[in-house]
């Protein structure tokens, strides 16, 4: 029975983290260990984590943060660099995992490994979009955002759009070997992981919602439904959009990704596909 390394980066998450920790305890697959790096929280997050450690000492390892606030991307990178397991999952402090998330994710990954022996593999599931109180807003993150992960996983399309939030991922150790060093300009850890998996291995979407993806005012990245007004909002925020895309182009240059013209053509094509899908 393979052991799963669950990586949790926390920061001022006292409001929701106890529910996330409980959802791990409630998993149908029990052979996992939680690795936590707290990014210098100023609230009671670390106290809640240490209370969890007292109850389940065999399930938790707390990394020392050396008093350094790294941000989400580098905090997850530090966890992944530290941990040595055969399989890895990434955990956000404010979500809740469906009880079969680890079991189903591992089963799908092993099925892909069997089909493609020796390959680096990334699997990622759909998510159930929920409000702050965990009331369901949308049954499918993919559908609500007009995302087709089976389209995105082809070619170099992860370079223009990431449809695999880290909290939905499971990867094998063979993929981890290709991930370091993390690029300085990577927007988030999960985007880099998706791109690398597309370049060197197998990407497999799991067509099941295995996580309650909680939406609240403090989300680092949320789930915004794609409706006609979504594109109008983009037009009214052109300056922010331009800055974001410039930063992303710098990231693509850093990783020898697609060029500026290819990026904008691919981005426009996929934006039109999403718009037409939502009509």
Q: Brief description of this entry?
A:
The chain is 41% helix and 19% strand. It is built from eleven helices and nine strands.
Would you give an account of this structure?
By secondary structure, this protein is an alpha/beta fold. It has a single domain, classed as Alpha-Beta Complex (Spore Coat Polysaccharide Biosynthesis Protein SpsA, Chain A), CATH 3.90.550.10. Helices cover 41% and strands 19% of the residues. Strands 1, 2, 3, 4, 5, 6, 7, 8 and 9 form a nine-stranded mixed sheet that branches. It is globular. The N and C termini lie far apart (46 Å). 38% of the residues are buried.
Features:
single chain; 279 residues; alpha/beta; Spore Coat Polysaccharide Biosynthesis Protein SpsA, Chain A; nine-stranded mixed beta sheet; 11 helices; 9 strands; 19% strand
